Amino acid sequence: MTILPRTFYSRDTITVAKSLLGKKIVRKIGKHEISGIITETEAYRHKDDSASHAFRKITERNKVMFGEVGKAYVYFTYGMHYCFNVVARNSKFEAGAVLIRAIIPEKGIEIMEKNRGIKDRKKIADGPAKLTQALGITKEHYGVDLTVDSKLFIIEGVKPGKIIASPRIGIKNATDRLWNFKISIK
DNA sequence: CCCTAGATTTACT
DNA sequence: GTAAATCTAGGGC
């Protein structure tokens, strides 16, 4: 197992979003280990990106996007859902993060089924809020360092095939940018 | 298959 | 006050 180093995240946010495809998220809860392969991501940057939470200014919620790369940015939205991002940017930007939108369950599938209350493996973590629920990610994980072996981190995974670029989902601004990336599921 | 409504915190056009 | 980087259940086609 190789944990992705901090330097992996200190590149352009778009590059990191594409590079994260095929990598694995590992979540440890007590003695249980849950993991999944990342299949869909989205890049969010700073002043050049009107759809980003960091577009206007730094706030209590988004401040981790301005902090050290390789950390978790977890936010709560629509009154019910958490979404999980990884802080990533190069030195040209003051803020940036990659939203993890979907994973393929690998280990600990029983735990995910329990967390989600459903058994359909295809639907267990195929959306940003589904994935956080399946992995048990909440605001407790805001700012967690993902480059050290603790309860939540990201490791090397499989080599992705063809990457498909699309407009980002659920936003109204900057929809001309193809910053949603996914790999086809076998 | 497609569409709609409702859940209800956080931040601010 | 209301829109938001969303999901689910339920009804119609």
Quick structural summary:
The protein has 186 residues and is α+β, with helices and mostly antiparallel strands. It has four helices and eight strands.
| Quaternary organisation | single chain
Tally the beta strands.
8
Order of helices and strands: HHEEEEEHHEEE
| Helix fraction by DSSP (H/I, runs of at least 4) | 10-25%
Helix-strand makeup class? alpha+beta
Anisotropy-based shape = globular
Given as residue ranges, the uncertain stretches (5+ residues, pLDDT < 50) are none
What fraction strand? 25-35%
Count of distinct structural domains: 1
Q: CATH homologous superfamily? A: Methylpurine-DNA glycosylase (MPG)
Count helical runs.
4
Distance between the termini: 23 Å
CATH class: Alpha Beta
CATH architecture: Roll
Radius of gyration: 15 Å
Written description of the protein model:
By secondary structure, this protein is of the alpha+beta class. It has a single domain, classed as 3-methyladenine DNA Glycosylase, Chain A (Roll). It is built from four helices and eight strands. It has helices at residues 6-9, 13-19, 109-116, 128-135; strands at 24-29, 32-44, 72-77, 81-87, 97-107, 152-155, 163-166, 180-183. Strands 1, 2, 3, 4, 5, 6, 7 and 8 form an eight-stranded antiparallel beta sheet that branches. A hairpin with a 3-residue loop joins strand 3 and strand 4 (81-87). Helix 3 (109-116) packs across helix 4. The two termini are 23 Å apart. It binds a DNA duplex (13 and 13 nucleotides) through residues 42, 44, 51-53, 56, 59-61, 75-81, 83, 85, 99, 101, 127-130, 133, 168-172.
